[in-house]
Fold:
Amino acid sequence: MREEVASSCPVPKVDSERIRLAHGGGGRLMHGLLEKLILPAFRNPLLDQRHDGAVFDVPGRVAFTTDSYVVRPIFFPGGDIGKLAVHGTINDLAMCGARPVALSAAFILEEGFSIEDFHRVIDSMRVAAGDVPIATGDTKVVDRGKGDGIYVTTAGVGVVDHSLAINPAGVRPGDAVLVSGDLGRHGIAVLAQREGLSFETTIESDTAPLWDAVSELLRAGISIHCLRDLTRGGLSSALVEIAEAAGVSIGMDECAIPVSEEVAGACEILGLDPFYVANEGRFVCFVPATEAERSLAVLRSTRVAHGAVLAGRVAEGPRGRVTVKSRIGALRILDMLSGEQLPRIC
Amino acid sequence: MKYLDEYRDAEAARRLADRIARAGTRPWTIMEVCGGQTHAIVRFGIDELLPPTITLVHGPGCPVCVTPVELIDQAIEIAGRPNVVLASFGDMLRVPGTNEDLLAVKARGGDVRMVYSPMDALALARANPAREVVFFAVGFETTAPANAMAVAEAHRHRVSNFSILVSHVLVPPAIEAIVSSPQRRVQGFLAAGHVCTVMGSGEYEPLARKYRVPIVITGFEPLDILDGVCRCIQQLEEGRAEVENAYARAVRAEGNRPAQALIADVFRIVHRRWRGIGEIPRSGLALSERYAGFDAQVRFGVAGRATEESSECVSGLVLQGLRKPQECPAFGARCTPDHPLGATMVSAEGACAAYYRYRRFSEASHA
Structure:
């Protein structure tokens, strides 16, 4: 049986079906994992140096970021932990207005983790990274029961080749607040998969790299004031953080913010508020009001932000106040998430 | 979304609000009984559409909020024992007991799990026959049928490692406690639609007659609530005190008979303490004799321990409609959703949490 599976499976055969402690031990097994699985997948000139680190030239200002991924389940509709880890770091760079130039990938594997699943994760990272080289990495194995299959940490270096200062301090009263698309797909996709909840249609994660959309805005000469991807805590937490850091208030319009029917329905059933549900391919963009229409046109021409909307305005204080005009026309406060709405979503 | 957007229509909401404004000639105070309604009122800003003469006060219908602290302490004690899985709805995990909450037990190594249904807890018990699985069964008449079903199924399939820690409460005795109080402010009630889906409307007739109070069975969407308020105001203005069904798309006069039969089989009516309010006679459910073997209080020997409330928390007054959340000196300062002093600050249905989340700057937003 085993042989049949192996012969019909595109996964290169390594020394065993499951991760053993020795796969992280620095010896022959670890070498095999690297040679047969990781290096061929990520192949690029920086990694092929086979050095302790990657050495390369970077012009001008640099953005540098890191993030760890512990999502459960590892595979979910629309993505997996590997895709999330690559997109997440590319997106953190993009939100600094930085073009990603190199990533690192570090894995903590649990003894007994399926090598086929590891291969799927690696392959998904290769596809997600596209032209951005995964230039260096590391693999460790922990005892069975001491991990949860696989944890992934990525770091990224990006180049800032424009003179804008894209950060919360740049937000000004009067700025337009653009939301790049509909909310809540990632959080609901992961929750539904984990809890075995099924809806009439499968909700897929929105995980996606956001650099292309940001780069189009920059190319169009938009004076972006601030960008923030809407990950854990959702739109609400991102807006409150920015309003506090910038010392402004923000007013949003609930009717303008798209939520797909599937996500809205799932949220109603589960008692969740889509404004707090996680996304992995959505961002909020602060631009001068005079450039709002042009920014929307640029965003809507891109694949990841074709559903962009003008959803709010920045006003002077009180600092940190985010209000939303509800569907029936009354105002309510958006606050940061207290506690956890959903555990382990990224 | 169909069956939802229709009940959130801004234009229709404004028309109803106008009708309420025209109907009301005097100040009136109305209580929405259910925490789900409180949440919707604050989330959509429904009360902002009402004329200033109409005051909505928030009732005791938040199951997490009224679960007495000793029950939470008992759950914490059980969850801390070896070989136990304690399963509960998510909100319950963050409610402070005397010293800590259930999440603190989980952080220390206790097996505390969030489930979406008591049947999930029963499935856990069947999958882990060598462990004791305890479900923390809280709620009103709405959740009672599912909890009863879990116990009845456990009984039928002889799942001996399953038990429930019961903190079930009933709406009509709570309404009676509020209307019969000498401090009564409330002149009309919006009864909880989903409770009536199970129990029907019959239980409310004697209350409306005896206390001369309108009781309007109301749903949870903005238009439902405005419609409930409108009908309540019309009754008050006309001097009527009737039970009226404004949630006819879900509630029938007789309720759900099979669900009632299940509740009657598995549970019996008992006196129960409500957090912040005190004991209300015949206001709760406990397991009936036939199912007494599934009582976690007995199985783990934790019954009968009483504990004291935090003296600073005024949630009892909030739950009886005698105090608004922001009138509490601790609100938003020493008491926040991250550091709650009382349960009304924890649950999404708790009045204090709803105000904190949606209303903290309300003075400023009107300025």
Notes: Chain A touches chain B at residues 195, 197, 261, 264-265, 268, 270-271, 273, 318, 321, 323, 326-333, 335, 338-339 (CB under 8 Å). The longest helix of chain A spans residues 28-42. Residues 1-9 of chain A have pLDDT under 50 and may be disordered.
